[in-house]
Amino acid sequence: MWTWFHKLASPPHFYNLSRLLIPWLAVPGYLLIAYGAYAGLFLAPPDYQQGDAFRIIYVHVPSAYLSMMAYMIMAVAGGIGLIWRMKLAHAVAASAAPIGASFTFLALATGSIWGRPMWGTWWEWGDPRLMSELILLFLYFGYMALRGAIDDTAKADKASAVLALVGAVNVPIIHFSVEWWSSLHQGPTLVREGGPAMDPGMLYPLLAMIFGFTLVFGAMLLRRIRTEVLHRERRTRWVKELVLAPGGSI
Amino acid sequence: MTTGEHTPGLMSGLLGTARRDLLLVWKRPGDVLNPLFFFAMVGTLFPLAIGPSVEQLEFAGPGVVWVAALLAMLLSLNSLFVGDFEDGSLEQLLLSPQPLVLLALGKTIAHWLTSGLPLVIMSPILAITFRMPADTILILMATLALGTISLSLLGSVGAALTVGLHRGTALLSLLTLPLSMPVLIFGARTVSLAAVGDVYSMGIFALAAYAVGALSLAPFATAAALRISNE
Prior knowledge:
The structure holds two protein chains of two kinds.
Chain A: H1 3-9, H2 11-43, H3 57-84, H4 87-119, H5 128-149, H6 153-181, H7 200-232, H8 237-244
Helix pairs in contact in A: 2-7, 3-4, 3-6, 3-7, 4-5, 4-7, 5-6
Chain B: H1 10-27, H2 30-50, H3 54-77, H4 79-87, H5 89-95, H6 100-129, H7 134-162, H8 168-195, H9 201-229
Helix pairs in contact in B: 1-6, 2-3, 2-6, 3-6, 3-7, 3-8, 6-7, 6-9, 7-8, 7-9, 8-9
């Protein structure tokens, strides 16, 4: 029953499988983003309060959601790597960190740009969600710094996995503490009882963007893991064969 | 092992480690005093930076004392495992038949007694200079007592992860600061709320809950991190 799991964990198998998988994620992902961007920027009606400024949510919301998702993937993969000593899981965690940090930065940047016309300031310290994202960015920095400081890959994997797990336990607490600390942001409009309080013309492009971003994130993650696996396995026979194969490309 | 042989109990390992660390500090008290001086100096930086206006200092007081305490805790964490790592006694702890979780907890308890507790006792002096009223000072001490327990425990994870690394000191701050932000928020806000006569019990409960959670989870992470760092 678990053979597929063990098979997936073998680097050469993963390497071949992921190459087939990437286009199936990337193509629908970019199509969804293209639709979402066009519909969100041109077709969706302007917000009755925020005018056209609200349109930045089409980038902001998916980035903010992926910034959290990437951290969870990093922590879960790190935990799997620690418990089952699965090397591929550590490669997943190592690859998820820089992508997650980039989405966190994107969420912060778009939030800040949105804040300029809305709050009249580039940065609002009182906003709990910007604050949570900022602390999340710091958590990513700490994780990547720890990884970078340890030369031995196996040791770096395990140490950063412990840090990611401790961080993952703290993320909800940070969120809660910052919420308590202040509440100035507008309430949630997407997920709430009785369905989203959003015009369908605004909502569908947003959903397309969220799914599109997720698929593209998956493709980006797979690409990074492939490179990471290749780098980690550079002394093994299968990589050598891959490189030396006639007409072989990586 | 024969049945007649005396095996030390679990508590003896925890207490033994704690007693040893306390004894080490007793023989060389400079390690405890430095973070306390640092605490006082950071507290002095703020009035110099903000200006001598009494209202502003009164307003900033809780935050200043808390930030100073957080930084002083960070400073003291550097030496938590480094000494043992350098003289090889950390390896002996790892090889010990006692569970490493309890030994790590023993070291963390000793760390809190020698760095957290002195800060709690010192804090009224700094608080008085910021014109904090007596009943607010009591709240400040309560939040610091609960908060520094969490900081010691969280910091022990960071210290265990960075022990033996070349640039461990800077890295330790980078790892520990974001994790300790909830403690700072609950601590400083609770004192601010108490200072203006608002309801503050929620913050105390949150700090206590955090301390209990950290007490039950952090030693396991510290033990795992120590094993990884000493592979």
